[in-house]
Amino acid sequence: MNHVSFLLRRRTFVAVALLAGVVGCGGSDDPQYPPPLLKAAAVSAPDPFGAAAAKLILEQGGNAVDAGVAVGFTLAVTLPSAGNIGGGGFMTVYMDGKPYFIDYREKAPGAATPTMYLDANGDVIPRLSLDGSLAAGVPGTVAGMQAVHQKFGKLSWSQVLAPAIGYARAGFMAYNTASPTTTASRSNFNNYFGGKMVAGQLFKQPELANTLQRISDNGADEFYKGQTADLLVAQMQRTQGLISKADLANYQAVWRDPVAIDWNGYTVYTAPPPSSGGFGIGQLLKMKSFLAPQFANAPLNSAQYLHLMAEMEKRVFADRAQYLGDSDFFSVPMSTLLSDDYLRRRAAEVNPLVPTPLAQIQPGLGTDLPAAPGATEKPQTTHFSIVDKWGNAVSNTYTLNGGYGSGIVVEGAGFLLNNEMDDFAAKPGVPNQFGVVGSDANSVQPNKRPLSSMSPTIATQNGKVALVLGTPGGSRIFTSVYQVLVDVLEYKLPIAEAQAQPRFHHQLLPDNVIEYEASKYPASVGTDLTNRGWIMKDGVGGGLNIEAVQVIGDMPYPVTDPRGKNGAVSVIY
Ligand code: DON
Description:
The protein has helices at residues 48-59, 64-78, 141-152, 157-170, 184-192, 206-218, 220-225, 227-238, 245-250, 277-290, 292-296, 303-323, 334-337, 340-348, 477-489, 495-500, 523-532; strands spanning 5-9, 41-45, 88-95, 98-104, 172-173, 202-203, 254-256, 259-263, 266-270, 382-387, 393-399, 409-410, 415-416, 457-461, 464-470, 504-505, 513-516, 535-538, 547-552, 555-559, 568-572.
């Protein structure tokens, strides 16, 4: 088969991919492959190295999962603020016409306790769940990548790890990924590497190359039971962390049924608990359809549109705080929360004119909710979307949580650990770094997964992939994924135009605050909403960066978000 491919880069940057020993092109004439459904494969990735790794693997005859695993490991090298082997995430897969979801979210260590982030007075100790070893959950990425590769991969494990090992050993030309703020976590990472990751300079990570080589040789057991596990536990012992050998040995990625929402002629497959993403997207899509008469008089992104959406979001976040957590520990009433009857009732509570006062917003199935202030931190996570020629798709969001995670680098192994423990509710009603609160559903418990908002999503129509997307952004993730889904699949905007549309977000707390990209709206939108009682705040937090592939007919169109700095797409013919 003749492969012609090209790489489109969003921005000019100095980028030299030193893929020593991994450049090469295999064939895809394998008889086990059915004839291609699409004219090309496509990837949208947060950096050009990830896009190049996917392109390489797809050209070697790999499918979307092979490419996804290669990108997952590559970003652990080239995007250390968010890409990882020391964190966790979720992958939604559409393979041979069927949806799958692998949960490789971090778990609380076995020695974790509900009060571990509280002082003697029962108050939350600032930043204990964010900085240092106590912030780290048991990482899931390596287990997740192996599970999905074992089930669906066509190429060998060593083939899909090769690009990452190449980038780590030979190095890559660093570019500026970070926000101007230097956090403690980023300083720790820089210090570990002697300040060598500097934009425009070659950055090599020989320890990480060795770690990845051992994982390539010995599989995920190396990470969870081998030398890497020993190094990680030694790091915990040096820095008073809790992750033990037993925690690592017992870690398992879990296959779950994705949330599936039939909506507007599409089926939207997205993240179930321990993510709140599928719950949030499902509630928003359905409530909006039950409010169709009101939305008929609210043009897309008008003041009335934002008002109706924010009213819906108040209810969604009240339910999220009360009922969402790890479904292995807490019975999350997902089918009720997503049922038509329930959401018709919730939609009917929406006030079409002014914001409903906070005191009147209750979780829809009972119990009240404490008020709490918001939070400001800018964190990092990352997403990539891939469609292969056979019409299979991978939508993957994974994270260290905050940029550079806990700041703890495992000495001798060369990778960062997450600070995902902050996604638990350290104390009911006290907000985490995204300003969201939780109840006992999301309390810290040993071996439990913290509640997430990550929403890797795939929409299909008549069994064929139509749109693959996801984004970083903490609690802003699912409201953003929702906006692009609706803009493309309901308002029929071209995907690039949908990406450029202004974004907004409301999450119940802080009370009546709508975050919005003010300069992209007519000034009258802000004035109108302020006059109704909303507090309009410029900017949507969380570093939104939607990486998406839309399929139209037999052609995939990858796009990166204009908000992202270094996103890259590749189309592989
Ligand atoms: O799982 C979650 O929802 C968060 N830990 C994700 C963090 C995130 O998106 C930060 N990115 N900007």
